[in-house]
Amino acid sequence: MATSASQTLRTTPFLKTPSLSLSSRQSLSSAFSVALRPSRRFSKPLVVIVKASGSLDAKPTVLVAEKLGEAGLKLLKEFANVDCSYNLSPEELCTKISLCDAIIVRSGTKVSREVFESSAGRLKVVGRAGVGIDNVDLAAATEHGCLVVNAPTANTVAAAEHGIALLAAMARNVAQADASVKAGKWQRNKYVGVSLVGKTLAVMGFGKVGSEVARRAKGLGMHVISHDPYAPADRARAIGVELVSFDQAITTADFISLHMPLTPTTSKILNDDTFAKMKKGVRIVNVARGGVIDEDALVRALDAGIVAQAALDVFTKEPPPADNKLVLHENVTATPHLGASTMEAQEGVAIEIAEAVVGALRGELAATAVNAPMVPAEVLSELKPYVVLAEKLGRLAVQLVAGGSGVKTVKVTYASARAPDDLDTRLLRAMITKGIIEPISSVFVNLVNADFTAKQRVDVSLEGSILLCRQVDQPGMIGTVGSILGEENVNVSFMSVGRIAPRKQAVMAIGVDDQPSKQALKKIGEVSAIEEFVFLKL
């Protein structure tokens, strides 16, 4: 049985000049084209990204700010002008970015809000050659309509293998024993290790890398548990892993392996309090992000014997200072962020991020977008015929003011043979949002920033109800309409005006918490400078 979901937009039109419409403020021809081609390389959830028509007549410029494999550079050069400029200072990056359509970075370059502001709207794609995106200001990227893509699959195995390598090396004191032998010593009794078989490993973060570490640890005879509030239990059970609470994971584990992103929630998630709850003699591996561990607290835990050993590939500051107490600690094995450093992974990451960036610049589907609506490929094929239609319906809801009794209701219904939980309409919602916002805003809107623009940037909110007036721009208009609403005890949530030029045609948008009475709406319609208006109940 087909399932459906619907949303209703009710409109009450009041016309003073039937021949005119809200669309007369600006041309409503679409500024976007949409390409719906699947990725050649990866069978992943897909996302539509739009491009401005005519914007790619000339070759785009891609700034490669950190080392990238030759295979990836070759792909980029076939499509774009490639500028390889490494070790740029923040000031140099901000200066150069206004000439670039895309930038590719690894973990060492910060793509900050200042970078997006300095791009003056030209920067369309940020490619992160790797998994983590904590060095990219996602909020600023989204606000500026810039797509952020990463390369999450190519280095998964390499990172997992490095995690297992550190786990085994730590358990058997490989690094310390190696240094001892090279110093001319033979200390067999000092470097007695511990076995992995039968020990409990807590994998903190059951994503791509975490799950691969779990598979390999199971093969070593370890009992594996995991904490990840977003991981499906059936996927964990499929490889023999039990999902547990955070406290259960850290209090029962003999080994803890970290595989979580660095977010405000996970920052310093291992600290004095959490170390105090752990088994005495626990061993910790981190190939995720240095900031998830309070490094000073870890030193204290190592000195107290709570943590027997730690094996770390990442640090809060990279490279760490020469006198870093954690790095110099006898019971710490340290490597210089080598998680993805295999020949195979480096080539794979370069190709993956190059394909993602080129595809996004072409307006194709980006399989690895991290700040845009994403839908599975099979659902996308069902939605494809309705993508453009959804945008047009959004435009229609805002600008269509007909003669006579007018349009009373615009109802958008989603229907599918899929189960209710599988009715994914986020892409269509984004297109409708785009259609609603663009006719009444001068802000450039695309699928990346549609929701953010609606909530933060433009003057029109998609919540509550909206009164839109097309009027002559003149003093006192806000006060006049505001007074009418105030007399009716109608609370105003926002009020703003967009105009072509001073004392020319303008559109005033007023958000209200309550529906004005017909008498109030009539008074607004009688204001001489208001040529046409419509009340939208969302």
Automatic annotation (TrEMBL):
Keywords: Amino-acid biosynthesis, Chloroplast, NAD, Oxidoreductase, Plastid, Serine biosynthesis, Transit peptide. Pfam families: 2-Hacid_dh, 2-Hacid_dh_C, ACT, PGDH_inter. Its EC number is 1.1.1.95. It catalyses: (2R)-3-phosphoglycerate + NAD(+) = 3-phosphooxypyruvate + NADH + H(+). Its main location: plastid. InterPro entries: ACT-like_dom_sf, ACT_dom, Ado_hCys_hydrolase_NAD-bd, ASB_dom_sf, D-isomer_2_OHA_DH_cat_dom, D-isomer_DH_CS, D-isomer_DH_CS1, D-isomer_DH_NAD-bd. GO terms for cellular component: chloroplast stroma. PROSITE patterns: ACT, D_2_HYDROXYACID_DH_1, D_2_HYDROXYACID_DH_2, D_2_HYDROXYACID_DH_3. It is found in: Plastid, Chloroplast. One of its GO terms (biological process) is L-serine biosynthetic process. The keyword Oxidoreductase applies. SMART domains: AdoHcyase_NAD. It is an enzyme of class 1 (oxidoreductase). Transmembrane segments: none annotated. GO terms for molecular function: NAD binding; phosphoglycerate dehydrogenase activity. It comes from the Eukaryota. Residues 466-538 form the ACT domain. Belongs to the D-isomer specific 2-hydroxyacid dehydrogenase family. NCBIfam families: PGDH (TIGR01327). This is D-3-phosphoglycerate dehydrogenase.
